[in-house]
Write a structure and sequence with these properties.
The chain is an alpha/beta fold. It has one domain: Transcription Regulator spoIIAA. It is about 40% helix and about 30% strand. The protein has 5 helices and 6 strands; from the N terminus they run E-E-E-H-E-H-E-H-H-E-H. The chain has a 6-stranded mixed β-sheet with strand order 1-2-3-4-5-6. Helix 1 runs parallel beside helix 2.
Length: about 130
């Protein structure tokens, strides 16, 4: 498990080897440095388990809209979510329309995102769909 606390943001990455779930949770206002730290930790952690057997659960409902440079880094991250061959990809939105629209807009530029990411309201719904 990786935990990170930035000035105005935080994230947690956890690979649950029993449930075969990789859970990425992020919240707050990310700076470019926070985004770079997330990418580094994500890349390192996803090499430690067989991704084809795991579901990815992304919980970014509390992530706040950011600067254009951070949005660009977020696009890089979404591509990485697709590059790692997860069995399934679920995105927790808590019904937040801004979050949904931001990620759908960024995701439409990423091959495979629209077809393979399922948006859910909460962690319980995500776990039911794993």
């Amino acid at each position: 498990m990786v935990k990170y606390q930035g000035k105005n943001s935080n994230y947690q990455l956890n690979a649950d080897k029993l449930k075969k779930i990789f859970h990425a949770q992020a919240s707050g206002f990310f700076s470019a440095e926070d985004g770079a730290a997330f990418l580094k930790d994500y890349d390192e952690l996803t090499k430690t388990f067989p991704a084809k057997e795991y579901a990815l659960i992304i919980d970014a409902a509390e992530l706040k809209p950011s600067s254009p440079e951070v949005a660009q880094a977020l696009g890089v991250l979404l591509k990485r979510y697709m590059d790692v061959p997860f069995k399934k990809r679920l995105f927790i939105t808590k019904g937040n329309v801004v979050t949904i629209s931001q990620f759908k807009r960024l995701g439409k530029e990423i091959p495979g995102w629209t077809e393979s990411v399922q948006y859910v309201d909460n962690i319980n719904e995500a776990l039911k769909n794993v």
